[in-house]
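Minutes, structural biology subgroup

Action item carried over from last meeting: produce the structure token record for SD-repeat containing protein B domain-containing protein (Fibrella forsythiae). EB confirmed the sequence was re-checked against the source entry. Recorded below for completeness.
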Amino acid sequence: MATLVRLILGAAIAFLFTLQVRGQTVPIKFWQDTIGVTVGTTFTNRLSIENSGNAPLILHMLVQTPRYIQWVSSTPQRLSIQPGQTETIPLKGLLYHQPGKPSQLVTIFLSDTSGRLLHRASFTLNIKVPVNKPAISVYVPEETLVLYAGSEPARPSLHLIHHQARRSRYTIEMQSIPLGMDKSSFPTIITLKPLQDTTFTFIVHPQRYWSPNKPYQLALTIRDSAQSIISSVLYKVVVAVTTKRYEKTDQLNNSGYGVRAAITKLSTNEWAREARIWGTDSLGKTQLAFQLNYLDYASSNFQQLQSSAISLRTARTQLQLGSVYDYHEMPLLGRGIRLNLIRPDHQWTFWAVNTNPNWLYSGENAWTGNVASVRYDQQLRGLPGASWSLSSSYFTQPGVMRAGYLNFASFQYDESEHQSLQVLAGQSTEYAQNNPSASRSMGWAGQVNYTYERPAFRWQLRSYFSSPVYAGLQRGATLLNNQLAWSVREHTTLLLRINHVHYNQIRYTAATDFHRYVFGNSVAEASVNRQTGSFIAGLRAYWNLQVDSSNPFSQQATSARLAPSVAYHHNASQFMLSYDVGLFNYVTAIPNQPQLISQRITSSASIGDFTLWGYLQKGPYYLNDLRTERPDQIMTASITPMLNFALLDRRLAGSAGVNYLFDALYLKSRYIAVGRVQYDVTPTFSVRLEGNGTPYAQANEFSYSQYRLEVTKRFDQLRLKGSGRLQLRFFSDADGNGQLDKGEQWLEGLLVTVNDNTLITNEKGIITYKNIPPGTYAVSALSTSHLGDPILFQESITVDRSVNRLIPLRQTFRVTGKLTCQTNAYDQKPCEFDRFLIEVRRAEQKIASTSPLPDGTFSLHLSPGTYTILVHDRGRQVQATVKTSPLQVSATGEHQALNWTVDGSTRAVEIRRFRKE
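Output recorded by EB:
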């Protein structure tokens, strides 16, 4: 009888669970339900949320992670999903300590605007016990760096735990996105003692200033002695000011508008004038971008209008009119239209292009024509990391009266971060336009690329083959690159490489007339590099074959060469010297030509702000050097000293130097001033001067140099759309009545975050955003001084035109408590505290909610007052409130103990059905 009751009860619970799942309107799924991870490594997953209803869906998301997981990616707390739309959110974390349990859960909670739980889902982390500890463990104490002035340096900190039992050196590299960082002190070398646990703080100066209107990211990369990447970290740098223009966090998009005018003097005494206009903006949910680039060679009476286009992009569509630059077997380079239809797992792309990139030139030649192309790209859902593409194109070449078709298919599979495979097959048909049966040619192409990578071993094989009449970008190509890099020992690296590039092309000069062009080179090499302290010594031995059927003196040359090198790096100082010597054999019509010994010396040095570059060549090195009857007299020397400077609070910065070139073949010497200087007159107006020239050349036609002066002005967003103004004013509400009373103070020094942008209140408690697009923004305030605990204000504010808010804030105190599980004798499993939710209410209004940590502790930040605390058990069907308790927080933050015992034995019922075999 007892067994029957258990079965009936289990069936009832399963039925209720089924009803709940059927009523679920927020289908979510993970890319991977189980992920293996080891200490010191990151893991990545993707969460897909689909709105299967008929109305927009607004969700609040909470991510609960185990104790020893540091969350790396930023996850939105609030989501707005349109009907039929699927939102994909990347999830990335770092395991920095070995937990006691080999299996851990990462749980996602989705609730509606009222706080009602809609869905809970988890994926499992299987913690692997590492056979060998990683060399170092890396984590970041603070990812957001708040500065209070644009000229103030950023100070990113890095916590390193060195696991090796010997002293090791690592190289620290730093980049900024977008550009704006002074990189003179990077890369830098740090030395870690055996089993050392330490924190490094780096000082990063801006190149001129950090723009308050632009959020920056600093990308820090750690490399070991073999220059292998150990870790990469991102910091966010924001300048906290009282008032600024709102800017989205698209780091690679230079939003706003600009105009640039430049004048250039070439070494041929020819002058060129340039004008460029560009801009990006958002029109509702559409992103607008355009640019116009005009170039006028005055003395040649030749004008160019190219790199000029306008594009509109939404979440599912992109349209570009004007200049097009695309390469997929066919060079789609010119002017025309491109349309992208973007979906979560596939994409259609259409092109219609006239392959003359200059809008001001209408003449036809052998290279211009028209192309109509379509391409389809698809990701394979059943095989993560795999995708395939299919394309078909029709093209015409009016200059030579030919036309044809080109089709190709490709497949790419990234099996893991260690292996990837790419395969391509193409076919083309080309014919005379006036007589398709005449001079009809059929071409083909194939490509196989494979990469295998491990921490101490990397093998890369790239191959491409096409017939001489193939109509694709690589016509008549035989390309082979086989490269193997192996870290033999900790400070020793071996590289073996075979690189073969050969072209046998048939180029049509008319509908039925053609010529053949053969050129290319082959290199087989072996090199070894050894690092000892700050010194790196290398030795490279290689054999080189060069072929060029158009060379009038020699159409083929071979050389066997040996190239030792030495480099020294220490903080901001570095030095490099390489010597390349070998025998140079070439084929010529003149008999009995002796072998030539050719030599190259290259050197560079950098000490502080001074750099020096030098070069010396004796004898021919490239086959192109043999376009002379006297190759044995080739001797070129070049030296370039440079001085870097930064003045006027880095508003005036650049480098200046001189290049000296001596050419013994033509008995010429040349001095050219080189360098760059930029002066930022204002944050949006700059003047730049550049001068450069080729540091070495054996013939006049290659001795290019130019001096260029440009003036750039940038503008804020244009009034193509309505933009609003957000002004918030914070005061200390001492009596909690929500009104500004006499004696209550404005809150100065609050860090106020609007989405990902940070400001700081002035002495009157004010922050202001100008030109803020209409929308709903997540606003939070953080105390930096006298207001006690950190979380003071958090709210979503909708901006239409202008919003002015007076916001009362009360001092908050940290309220802590702990849950303890009451289990039964038959249930000895650890308590799953993540199933409980602690909710705080004041007069039936929800104030805050949180979940306990894995040990049952929890904390809240509350201002003085009377509250009700409810403990919800989400593990029960249906969700139940298992504890209700009043809470009184005094004016000094005192409160009663919040230590409660809850029933943790209620678990999901496992139902087994038996049948007779």
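Discussion: The radius of gyration is 34 Å.
Next step: EB to file the record with the rest of the batch.
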